[in-house]
Amino acid sequence: MTNNWMKKQRLLGYIFIGPSMLGVLLFFLIPALYSFGLMFTNYKFMNPNVEFVGLDNIIRLFKDPMFYLSLKNTAVFLLAVPVSIALGFVVAVVLNQKIYLKKLLRGLYFMPYITSGVAVAFVWMLLFHPTQGPINGMLRSIGIDNPPGWLSTTTSSMFAIDIIWVWFLLGYNMIIYLAALQEVSPELLEAAKIDGAKRGQILRKIIWPLVSPTTFLLLITGLIMTIKTFGIIQAITHGGPGNSTTILSLYVYQNAFRYYDMGYASTLSWALFIVILLITLVQWIGQKRWVHY
Amino acid sequence: MKKKAWFTGMASLVLIMGVLAGCSGNGNSNAGSEASPSANATASSGDPIQLTMWGGVPPESGPQAVVDAWNAEHPDIQVEYVRFVNDDEGNLKLDTAMMTGQDVDLFVNYTISQASKRVEAGLALDLSKFSDYNIDEKMGPDAKSFLIDGKYYGVPTTKSPFFVALNKDALDAAGLEVPKEWTWDELREYAKQLKQDGGYGFIQHTEPYVDPIDSVLAKEGYTKADGTSNLDHPLVKKWLETLNAMMAEDKSTPPLGEQLTSKMPVEQEFLSGKAPMLNIGAWLLRSSNNFTDFPRDFKIAFAPVPRLTDNAADYVTRGGLGDYISINAKSKHQEAAWEFLKWYADGGMAPMAAGGRLPASKDADQDAALESLLGDKADTYDVDSLMYVMFNNPAPTYVRSLPQEVMDARAQEYEKYFLGTQSADDTIAAMVKRHNEYLEQNQ
C-alpha cells in the first residue's frame, strides 16, 4: 500500500518536472549534442554541402594562432574576477558598519549591475577617450604627461576592459558579501574583541574564513559568467584594436555568426567548455584548502 | 486525497501532451504550406498578393514612400517593407528568416559575398528565367561585377559612387582646385594644407577605409599566378606607409586607434566643418541633406577616391552599382515580385534618392531622381563635381568581393600597424600568411 503510494508520488514528481525537463532537453541537451556532431563536419550556415571532415577542425584549432591569442586574452579578462571579489569584500565590510548614507551607497554600488550593457559600453568609451576623455584629463592634470591609451592601443585595451568588468561585477559581489556578513555571529566577534584581537586580525582571522563559502561561490560563478561573456566587448571594441580584445567566447561568436562557420565554431565552443570545466574542477579540488563550512 | 493527486497528475499530463501536440501541429502546417505553393496562389486570386521586401535602409529614408506609391497603383499586389540593420546581426536575421521559410519575397544584398552565400544556399532566384528585362542593357557595363557564376541572381539597382567629399569653401580659401583625378600623395599635400590648428585635414569613414588596397588587388588579382596571396603587392605597403605618415608625421588624419575606440562620427565632423575632407560613399547625402541634425554653412564638392598607382590608366575605383536586389527562390509569388522589382529599378525607387540612392537604370527619370536627391539644397552642393563622381568618372569600377574572414584578418593586421605595435613589413607578412591559411582551408 505505502509502496504503491510512493510509486505514485514519484511518478507525480516526474510529471511535475516534465515540462521544464522538456525545455532543458529541447533547448540545451539536444543542441549541445548537435554541436558535438557539428565539430566533425565543415558545416557552414546556409551552405547545403556538408561533409564529414573527421578531426580536421580539431587539428585546425591546435594550429590556429588566433585560438591561443584568444585564450591568453581570456586569461587576462578573468583577472577582473578576483580583483572585483576583493574590492567587493572591502566595500561590503565598510558598508556593513554604521556609516552615513549607507543605503544610498549600497544602491549606487549595485547600479552598474542592473544597467544596460550597451549604455555602459558607450559611457566607458567616452570616459576612456585617449585625448578628450575625463580619465586622461584627470591624469594629465595631476602631472602624468603620457597617460595610457586605454582602449585605443593593443597593449592596454584588455586591461581597460578589465577595469570596466571589475566595476560591473563589484555591485553584485558586494551585495552577496553583505548578506554573508549578516550571518557572521556577533558573539564570535565580541569574544575576539574581549580576547584582545585587533580590527585587522578580526577581519583576517574571523570574518574572512567565515565568509569563505561565499567567496568560493562568487569565484566560481564569476569566472564562469566572465568566461562566457562577450557582449560588452562586442559593443565596445569588436575584439580590436587589432585582435587585442578577442577573447575565446567572442571568437566563437565571430566564427559562428559573422563567418557562418558552424563546424569550427562548435569546435571552439567545446574548447571553451573544457576550459570552464577545468577551471571549475581546479577550484573544486582547491577549495578544501581554504573554504571553511 | 489520493484521488485529488491523481487528478493533478492527469491534468499535467494533458498539459504536456498539449504542448507536444502544439509542436507537431506546427511542423505539419509548415510541411503543408511548402508542398502546395500553387494551390495557395490560386486560392488567393481574390485577395491581393502580399509581398514582403527586406532592406537595410530605414523606412522613412525612402523605402516607405516607394512601397506606398506601388501599393496605391497596384491594389492586387501589396508590398510590405521590413527593415533589417545591415550588420552581422541584421544579415543573420534575414538569413535565418529565409532558411526557416518565413515570408521574405525580395531582399537587398549589400555585398557580393553575402549574395553569393545566399545563392549557394539556394535562396536567390536565378533571374535568367525572366526574359523581359535585359539587366546588362539597362544598367550598363558596371552590372557585370554582379554576375555570380555567370548569372544574375539579383538586379543591381542603384548608382553607388564612393568619393572624397570636400569642403569647397575651405578649398577655395586655400586656393586648391577640386581634383578630377589624383593620387594619395596629392591628397596628402591637400590634407597638410587644409589642416587647421588642432583639427584634421582628412578623415575617413571606416567602411571604405581599406578600399585603396582593394582597388589595386581588384585589378592585379588577390592571388598570384601560383595561387598564393598577393597582399604583398608593393602598393599595399605604399598605402600603409602613406596613411601612417599622415597620422604620425603630418598629424593631418586621426590615428586609427583613436578613431576606432571613440567611434568617431565622421559625417558629423565633416558636416560641422571641423574636417575639410571626408572619404565616404553616397550615403553621406542622407546626412548632408538633413540640415536639422547637421546644420552646415559651406558648399560640398566631390572628388574621386585617390589612387595609389601613378598611372591613371591602371586605376579602378570602387562603386559603380549597388543594392543588389534578389527574389527569394522559395517565394510563392515570384512573378509578382519580379513585376515589383522591374518597376522599382526603372524609377519606382526615385524616393530613395533623398538618401543618396540614384537609380542605375537608363530608363529611370534621372532628372526627377536628382531633384529628389538635392531637393531644395541644390545650391549647397557643387553639382558639377557631384555629377562627375556619380556619372562621368571614366575610371572602371569594381565591387568588393573579398570574403569576410580575409577582410577581418587584414583589418586586424593593419590596425596593429597603425597603432604602432607592428612594422609595415611584419604587417604585410602577417596578412599574407593569414590570407594563405584561409585560401588553404577553403580551396
TrEMBL record, chain A:
Domain ABC transmembrane type-1: 70-283
Keyword Transmembrane helix belongs to the record: yes
Chief location: membrane
Biological process (GO), any one: transmembrane transport
GO annotation, cellular component aspect: plasma membrane
Entry keyword annotation includes Transport: yes
Keywords linked to the UniProt accession: Cell membrane, Membrane, Transmembrane, Transmembrane helix, Transport
Location within or outside the cell: Cell membrane
Stored Pfam families: BPD_transp_1
Annotated TM spans: 12-36, 75-95, 107-129, 206-227, 267-286
Topological relation to the membrane, as annotated: Multi-pass membrane protein
Sequence similarity: Belongs to the binding-protein-dependent transport system permease family.
Name used for this protein in its record: Sugar ABC transporter permease
Organism field: Paenibacillus nanensis
Source lineage: Bacteria, Bacillati, Bacillota, Bacilli, Bacillales
